[in-house]
Write a structure and sequence with these properties.
The chain is 23% helix and 11% strand. It has helices at residues 11-62, 90-94, 101-105, 176-182, 324-331, and strands at 70-72, 168-174, 200-203, 206-207, 224-228, 236-237, 240-241, 265-267, 305-310, 315-319. The chain has five helices and ten strands. With 342 residues, it is of the alpha+beta class.
């Protein structure tokens, strides 16, 4: 009985199969990436929703919402670094309403952020200053380490100064130059015109400024609380890293920790090509996340815009092509601006 030989693939057939598989993979990868980004954007939106709810719970408990910044006067006693007065960012005050109260058990809101008692080892004695809060991190943002050691280099080389980071920052207001060029209907003196009020003072009788939701006469659904500004310490122009990424260089920005109020966003125009040059354009969203004369700006890794949370607690995806006039109106809490863009 003669055995039949089983036919094998020819080299051409094998190459054709490999080519087909490669084409299918090429089609599949972008689809998977789109699905992944859609999930990340939804997760990011949920993070901001939680922040909005925390603000309202804070208001329900204390009858005010945290200001975007405050300083101590007089400076808290017992600081080995002397009379440091810088207070905490609003996200710190929201921790108890985000099931993160344990972080505050090892820190003290009544002490300055520039106090070793609020710093991680080996720089200080707090066991929770380096704690990450998942709600404060957008999953679309590239992973990075938040290290403040270059800022405190004068205190000696003690190794990394690792802190918990955030991609979400308080809305402070708009720069006067942006008002003049892009949002003339926003009232004069637009600094600190945002929902979280002006910079307060924590004195012997507590906080001097306690923003109230009733102060938002433009309407809570028309006014921004927090915006995305992701990726710091690294500065990005578009989605490209600005280099060198070293302290003092154009590619490095300091204010990335969630207890640092200096990260608050004050809208200011940017040139699209050289983001370190301020006041040359009204399109600011997703141009750069910060650096240079303009400070920190709205920025995300989502295609076409950023997530924001409004004063009514709702989350909106804000188109990066929104007009300057509309953006100015959304930032100000009592400007009386009328706008129709979504």
């Amino acid at each position: 009985m003669t055995k039949q030989r089983r036919g094998a693939f020819t080299l051409i057939e094998l190459l054709v199969v490999i080519a087909i598989i490669a084409v299918l993979v090429g089609l599949l990868v972008p689809a998977v990436q789109k699905v992944r980004e859609a999930a990340n954007r939804m997760s990011c939106s949920n993070n901001m929703k939680q922040i909005g709810l925390a603000v309202h719970n804070h208001f329900s408990s204390l009858n005010y919402i945290p200001s975007w910044a405050y300083d101590f006067s007089p400076a808290p006693a017992g600081n080995p670094l002397g009379g440091q007065t810088q207070g905490h960012a609003p996200l710190m005050h929201l921790l108890p309403y985000l099931e993160q109260e344990n972080i505050l058990k090892a820190m003290d809101l009544k002490l300055s952020v520039i106090d070793p008692r609020n710093w991680p080892a080996p720089w200080g004695t707090s066991i929770s200053a380096s704690a990450k809060v998942k709600t404060f991190e957008c999953p679309s943002t590239p992973a990075r380490v938040i290290d403040y050691s270059p800022y405190f280099a004068a205190l000696g080389n003690k190794g990394p100064f690792t802190l918990g980071g955030t991609d979400y920052f308080a809305s402070r207001g708009i720069h006067p130059n942006f008002r003049t060029a892009c949002a003339p209907l926003t009232p004069p003196n637009p600094d600190d015109c945002g929902a979280l009020g002006g910079k307060g003072i924590w004195g012997t009788n507590g906080l001097s400024i306690k923003p109230n939701l009733s102060d938002i006469t433009d309407g809570t659904s028309n006014t921004v609380l927090f915006l995305e500004s992701g990726g710091r310490h690294q500065v990005y122009a578009g989605k490209t890293m600005v280099t060198p990424n070293a302290p003092g260089g154009p590619g490095w920005s300091l204010n990335a920790a969630y207890f640092d109020y200096n990260g608050a966003i004050r809208i200011r125009g940017y040139n699209n090509i050289v983001p370190q040059v301020a006041d040359s354009g009204c399109k600011v969203i997703n141009q750069t996340n910060g650096g240079g004369a303009g400070g920190y700006q709205p920025y995300s890794w989502h295609s076409g815009g950023i997530n924001i949370v409004r004063c009514d607690g709702s989350v909106q995806f804000l188109n990066e092509n929104v007009s300057g006039a509309t953006l100015g109106g959304m930032i100000s809490k009592a400007g009386g601006e009328v706008f129709s863009e979504n």
